[in-house]
Amino acid sequence: MKQRKRYKRGRNFIAKARNCEESSPEVLAAMERGKGIVKELDPLLREALRDAPAALAEWEDIMREFHNLEEEDSKDSGSSRDD
Predict the structure, then answer these.
(1) How far, in Å, CA of 42 to CA of 66, rounded?
(2) Which end of the chain is more exposed for a tag (fewer CB within 10 A), N or C?
(3) Residues 6+ apart with CB under 8 A from 46
């Protein structure tokens, strides 16, 4: 559960950083690199956690939220192009 709380705090921070007009290109680029790292870790963690169903289920929940955030980002970036 501690991981879940840390993830939610991180998610809130990322959302605030993205919405902040003062977000530097460096911060945004680092967040993009972080997304790539999560994508690389996903299959590795799924393999490592295959014999730990509770931990694997928690990781899968985290990844669902991650993918939901990516979808939201795609929609937001698409709507900003239309403005």
Answers:
(1) 11
(2) C
(3) 56, 59, 60
Compute the Cα dihedral for 8, 48, 70, 13 and give only its sign.
Answer: positive
pTM for this predicted structure:
0.63
Q: In this predicted structure, what is the pLDDT of residue 31?
A: 81
pLDDT tens across 15-56, in order?
776 666 566 788 778 888 888 899 999 999 999 999 999 999
Report in angstroms the alpha-carbon separations of 7 from 4, 51, 65.
5, 23, 10
DSSP conformation letters of 4-47: HHHHHHHHHHHHHHHH-TT--HHHHHHHHHHHHHHHHHHHHHHH
Query: How sure is the predictor about 80, in pLDDT bands with cuts at 50, 70 and 90?
Result: very low
Q: How far apart are CA 68 and CA 40, in angstroms?
A: 17
